[in-house]
UniProtKB/TrEMBL annotation:
PANTHER family: SUGAR FERMENTATION STIMULATION PROTEIN A. Gene3D superfamilies: 2.40.50.580, 3.40.1350.60. Residues 87-224 form the Sugar fermentation stimulation protein C-terminal domain. Belongs to the SfsA family. Transmembrane segments: none annotated. This is Sugar fermentation stimulation protein homolog. InterPro entries: SfsA, SfsA_C, SfsA_N. It comes from the Bacteria. Pfam families: SfsA (PF03749), SfsA_N (PF17746). The gene is sfsA.
Length: 238
């Protein structure tokens, strides 16, 4: 995924109400940007950090600015982290179509936002002749409390636990189900569940794996030009 226009640097003043952030532009003017991230953004939202914004001139849009990246030191020196959770589904879909995710290769059909379970939409449904459907849920990962170790979630998520149980239901129906953790941190070397933050999610993850749901993680290369899948990282065993 490439950003359609050059990003604008700014300084974070504060993040509030989850989806809003006040930022100071290079000329000193403070504007409010949309934050497309429902998590806590632990370690990424300290006042004074350098952030990067995109701007939309779409008529009728209330907030033209969107927070895309943050520049922080997570133990390997300053690096860019992608914080916009609206991007991962498109990033993964593009990587699958380009043959960059071997674990999800061999499916000529790809659909997005397909209804499944009690009241959910699966991020991707992969289909191919002679193969059972493959349901793929994608989680954006931006938490790193120890150098190299990416973790999810960064806040309690009952919705995330429900998704895991619904994926297990697809396996019980004879289909394939994959939980894909997309780490928007280039220095990530491994992945684990943040069980101390959400014990219920940890239990749901264990249930899903025991039921046959596959868990894979990939890190991204994050630059001012765009974000792309860079390679797999190992998922810690339960």
């Amino acid at each position: 995924m490439r950003f359609p226009a050059p990003l604008i640097p700014a300084t974070l003043v504060r993040r509030y109400k989850r989806f809003l952030a006040d930022v100071a532009l290079p000329d000193g003017i403070v504007v409010t940007a949309h934050v497309a991230n429902p998590g806590s953004m632990l370690g990424l939202a300290a006042p004074g950090v350098r952030v990067w914004l995109s701007r939309s001139d779409k008529p009728g849009r209330k907030l033209p600015w969107s927070w895309e990246l943050v520049e922080v030191d997570l133990g390997a020196g300053l690096e860019l982290v992608g914080v916009n959770t609206a991007h991962p589904n498109g990033i993964v879909a593009a990587a699958i179509l380009a043959g960059q995710l071997p674990a999800l290769a061999g499916y000529p059909g790809l659909r997005r936002e397909v209804r499944y379970g009690a009241a959910s939409r699966c991020d991707l449904l992969l289909e191919g002749p002679g193969r059972p459907p493959c349901w793929v849920e994608i989680k954006s990962v931006t938490l790193m409390r120890r150098p190299g170790l990416a973790e999810f979630p960064d806040a309690r998520t009952t919705r995330g636990s429900r998704h895991l149980d619904e994926l297990a239901g697809r396996v019980a129906a004879g289909e394939r189900a994959v939980m894909l953790f997309l780490v928007q941190i280039g220095s990530a070397a491994r992945f684990d569940i943040a069980r101390d933050i959400d014990p219920a999610y940890g239990l749901a993850f264990d249930r899903a794996q025991a039921a046959g749901v596959e868990a894979i993680a990939h890190r991204c290369a994050v630059t001012l030009d765009g974000i792309a899948v860079a390679g797999p990282v190992p998922v810690a065993a339960p």
